[in-house]
What we know:
The protein is an alpha/beta fold. It has 24 helices and 17 strands. The protein has a seven-stranded mixed sheet. A six-stranded mixed sheet has the order 13-12-14-15-17-16. A hairpin with a 2-residue loop joins β16 and β17. It is globular.
Amino acid sequence: MLLGSFSTSAATPEQVDAALRKSKEYMYSKMDKVKYWEEVPVMDEKAGSHSTSGRQWGGLTAISVYALLASGEKHLDPKLNPAVEWIKKQRIIGNYALGLRAQLWTFLPPTPEVKQLAMKDRDYLYKGMHRNPLPKAGDKDRIGFYPYWFNDDRTKMQPGDKWWDLSISQYGVLGMWACEQVDGVEVPIDYWAETDKAWKAAMYTDAENKGGWAYRRGAGAGNELKPGDTHEMVKPTMTAAGVATLFITQDYLLQYSNFGFCKGGANNMHLEAGLAWMDKNVGKLLGGGQFYGMYGVERIGVASGKKYFGTVDWYNVGADYLVKAQAADGSWGGSIPNTCFAMLFLARGRSPVIMNKLEYSLNDPANAKINLPWAQRPRDVANFSRFAGKMSEQYFNWQVVNLRVSPDDLHDAPILYVSGSKKLDFTDAEIAKLREYTAAGGLILFNADCADEEFVKSIVGPTGIGKKLFPKYEFRELPAAHPIYVDQVYQARNWKTKPKVLAVSNGVREMAILIPDADVGRAWQTRAEKTKEEAYQLGMNIFYYAAEKGNVRYRGATHVVKADPKIKPTVNVKVARIMVGDNPDPEPWGWQRLSAILHNQAGVGVKVEPVKPGEKKLVSGPTGFQMAHLTGTGNFTMSAPQRDEIKAFVNGGGTLVVDAAGGDAAFADAAEKELAAIFGGDASAIGPIIAPDERVYEWAAPFKIAKFDYRKYTRGKLSGKLNVPRIRAIERAGKQRVFYSREDISAGMLGQPCDGILGYEPETATAIMRNIVLYVAYNGRPPRPTTSPATAPTANPAAPAAAAQ
């Protein structure tokens, strides 16, 4: 497969798929004949409060169903549905078990039944947390935390009911969060405030342990870990629970803050301390059988948007460990809970990243004191991602990235979101990375927080970064008939207030979009889904455009391909990029990617040089060019010397490929006239269409093109057969020497899905041009492959909307 490779981890998407498949088989093999996973058929009243056969009865089935649903299983599947229906009907009193069962409601259709079940669990968990006034005098540090279980009558304390710890409490909070995700189910704000206060008070503040949590710790003087407190040492698992819990409480408490003022981002000192602790200690949780802890890492990574803890790519390292540690029977450690935690890590952690948010600083000394200029709305992209998942019935991650990494790392997501309210002043090196990101298919989405004019001018002004990023192109107001407005799920004509959108295009696709005054980030931050629905719908339309109707990849899969230095080319092809017209090379990165693919798969070295015909540089033969590529957008006309030089190049044995970049009609019309003028014939019928079984398509595996796919946009615009190629050829001396496509190939060679392009799907376009190069390189004889292309899946199949924490 041409699209998609995996980053540095040894765990490829294919390996993760296989691990999840094996784990599902294991889980179903452990299902009881009555379709649940419990150790005993009814609760054992004599068992312990934390036992899965005692007060936590129901928890094994809950976590099993949760893990299977999160891994893509459907609730109506005959194998799983009996367990779903069974767990709905059970009386569950243990807070571990109840918190896990509540996760299921986010995966099920929001029916009245599901709403009632979520409300019932919410009420039980709300009453079950230790709250003021306490039934009797006791340890006040337990306020805001959970016991293992409780009586419905909270005025009667049970033996051991005054117990509390952070392990059980995180599941109470998780359960409440999940219930609140169901439409129409609300959790009182005092619950989140009390929870936030309790967990912050339980965090250690001494220099050595700052940012860590233990299983139990009250709010002492400075809350320091004192000598002899070995039973209350900081625990990596509880620190993960603490950080993840504070992300949940922050989401609700920040809703009520005033985000109308743009004075920089506000620090959550407890969260920052917890994340700093994780940066230093995440290695203690990734591997070594720490499945419970790995689930906590995944929750933090997803909630915070962090791709790295310190320098550790948490998902790559964790996935690599889990793939290698899985037992032959598909389990991890022969344990249902451990297997479920591993499944949740793999499935949720690899979910597609819908949007990256750029972390940056202001280099201008006048703005140097502004704190976190990029994070004035700290949960804007997180909230939008959750909304997008709900609307798409698909789970999405989001990430915070910076420009200290390689541009390749930015391609985890189709969109890079940049927000702020001060002048952007990126360095030349940062500009170069952003330019490379967009050249390789990425889209930058700028949002002016508080509609700040200084931010806008720093992008589109005469000396703005737009000029540096895209020197050949200009920002303009997005046309009313643009695919973002008319070809996506949400129709702009239905919006009460249409946000102003500026964008810059290379003639094929949008490379950057600026929202100058609608401030969608504020609407996302405050979850104004109903009062500012156009802000969410515009964001969704931009996402659907950038990812071609939601064609996103698993985290870690990428369209970026690099040449393997261990492979040495055995054949070389020199390609001339024909430079005619006003926009002759809109997608130059496509040839860079295709060259790496040919190098890796066939040992073919490709050298591409721009050539302006008519200057006597387009010469065929052993010392000249073997192939030439003409593409672009807009109308163009060649001079007589230019036509003569191209004709001589082809007649001398060179091969010419012509395609309309983006499927641009003006370029295609002009190209047909020029080809007719150069080679004769009718401009409306340039050569016969090549049959799908001809040599150029019929190379031996892995170079055989067995399937021809067109982009979704194309399938809605063209008639006729859309499962066969439409490329035409002109022969010279019995061999095909000119290949012409009215439909786009050039943009497809980028490998990145994008809407609004009339042409072949990226994989098909790349395969077509690859095979033409092979046809030229080997003079029609099949080459010997050096490596087989990856077969890993690159897109995430649709799944029910899932929990985002």
